[in-house]
Design brief:
The protein has 161 residues and is an alpha+beta fold. The chain is built from 5 helices and 5 strands, in the order ββαβββαααα.
Length: 161
């Protein structure tokens, strides 16, 4: 029995891709294996840990819960779109400066959750930050440094404006 392939066109980090994919291919696997974007991490594969979070048409979603065929015609941003080692995104810079990561496995998911959060809420309280990240699991940091990093990034964004 052969698997039927479906054509998709998807824009990822500003680049349009045309591919043929199996109906059952997860978006997380498409990003990692077909496009080589390894920043999207796969943890639980049940949408619980948040490691695979990406921006789908601007909103944070779990890429392990979406099939690649569902991304047809949509715009996706992965952590690779945020910055470079030489020019970090302000949130990445704050995570670095505030030591908000240890092993780093969860970090891309946190960043992609927090980018739209800070765009919508540029002056969040600690409680609002904790609520925003309640779907992301980190086994190393205890979350305090992450909250500090988000507050730092928000302050830097305010000063830049």
């Amino acid at each position: 029995m052969s698997n039927k392939l479906f054509p998709i066109t998807v824009t990822v980090n500003g680049v349009e891709y045309k591919r043929e994919v199996e109906a059952r291919l997860l978006l997380s696997d498409f990003l990692r294996h077909d496009l080589g974007l390894l920043g999207t991490h796969v943890g639980c594969e049940h949408g619980i840990c948040g490691a695979c979070t990406i921006l789908f048409d601007g909103g944070a979603v779990r890429s392990c819960l979406i099939f690649a065929v569902q991304a047809n015609g949509h715009e996706i941003r992965t952590v690779e779109s945020l910055g470079t080692p030489e020019n970090l995104h302000p949130l990445q810079q704050s995570f670095h400066e505030k030591h908000a990561l240890q092993c780093g496995f969860c970090t891309p998911g946190f960043l992609m959750t927090l980018v739209p959060f800070l765009e919508e809420n540029p002056h969040p309280s600690d409680d609002e930050i904790r609520e925003a990240i309640d779907g992301n699991i980190c086994r190393c940091t205890g979350y305090e440094k992450i909250v500090e990093a988000v507050q730092d990034a928000a302050a830097k964004n305010s000063q830049a404006k």
